[in-house]
Amino acid sequence: MKIENIPKHVAIIPDGNRRWAKKRSRPSFFGHQAGAKAAEKVLDEALKLGIDSLTLWTCSRDNLERRSKAEVNFLYKLFTIYFKKLLRSKEIYDNQIRVRILGRWQDYVPVGLRKVLEQLEMDTKNFKQHNLTFLMAYNGTEEMVETVKKIIKENEAKIDEKKIKANLWTKDLPPVDLVIRTGGEPHWSVGFMMWDCANAQFYFTEKLWPDFDGKEFRMAIEDYNRRGRRLGA
User: Fold this and answer.
1) Is residue 231 part of a domain?
2) Is pLDDT at 131 greater than 90 in this prediction?
3) What is the torsional sign of CA 15, 190, 139, 214?
4) Which of 74, 124, 127, 220 is such that its CA lies 20 to 30 A from the CA of 206?
5) CATH number of the domain where residue 57 is located
6) Residue 148 lies inside a defined structural domain of this protein
7) Total number of domains constituting the chain
8) Does residue 88 surpass a pLDDT of 70?
9) Going along 139-205, which residue ranges are E strands?
């Protein structure tokens, strides 16, 4: 199918790593590892399709605070491996992809991972062809609360849509056109990018995240392509 209506900004809630591992009688670590490989496939397909901005929710604050220390430490090691790969990735530099990591990650991640993430952001900060954003230790409700606090601190008399957007963590990103949620549970989590998703389309799939590959991602884009967007009209 020829895709004529490509969404400019796609945001993904990748759910199902632990359930995928449980179905195979394997520990949760196995699912997270498979999920990281799925992310690589999706990133490759998004680039082939010419998606301008891709946002991937890697973990919430609850993931880091409520799960076992062993599981969280494994996630940090996994993140370190894959973000180091991005740091060395020829595709990132050839395609001028700006990488951002948004959320409370600096309050949680170990020093080694923090240095990798900071270096990745620094090395790509001037790139303008594509946006690749990872939400880490992210909570959408917290993002809005912090936005309101910043505006109050500035003592602004006029508050409008532009002012709110300018104070969001995602202030430099365009509105989200399509939200993809894997894992078969069609719900919204902790206000995920609530301001940016005001006019977004949603795509829910039963596929658990480790099974969501480039082909599945293209199917989601094709589904978006078939829809007529009215933007509230």
Assistant:
1) no
2) yes
3) positive
4) 74
5) 3.40.1180.10
6) no
7) 1
8) yes
9) 178-181, 201-204
- Measured between its terminal Cα atoms, the distance across the chain in Å is 28
Residue-level pLDDT at 155: 81
Catalytic residue numbers read: 15, 63
pLDDT at 9: 98
Q: What is the domain extent for residue 204? A: 9-139+175-224
Whole-number Cα distances in Å, 108 to 59, 75, 141? 11, 12, 18
In a domain, 46, yes or no: yes
pLDDT band at 231 (very low <50, low <70, confident <90, very high): low
Q: Which two tokens stand for residue 63?
A: 């993931």
Mean pLDDT across the stretch 84-105? 96
- Residue 115 phi/psi, 5-degree rounding, is -65, -40
Q: What angle do CA 59, 65, 70 make, to 5 degrees?
A: 85
- Distance CA(162)–CA(75), nearest Å, equals 36
Helices (H), the chain: 17-23, 28-49, 61-66, 69-88, 90-94, 111-124, 140-154, 161-166, 214-226
Instruction: For residues 105 and 109, give the distance between their C-alpha atoms in angstroms, rounded to a whole number.
Output: 6
* CA 196 vs CA 55, 104, 188, 203: distances in Å: 11, 18, 13, 16
Question: What pLDDT sits at residue 98?
Answer: 98
**DSSP E strands, the chain:** 9-13, 53-60, 97-102, 130-138, 178-181, 201-204
- C-alpha to C-alpha distance for 99 and 231, rounded to whole angstroms: 28
Residues 6+ apart with CB under 8 A from 84: 116
C-alpha 81/C-alpha 113 separation (Å) is: 9
DSSP characters over 37-50: HHHHHHHHHHHHHT
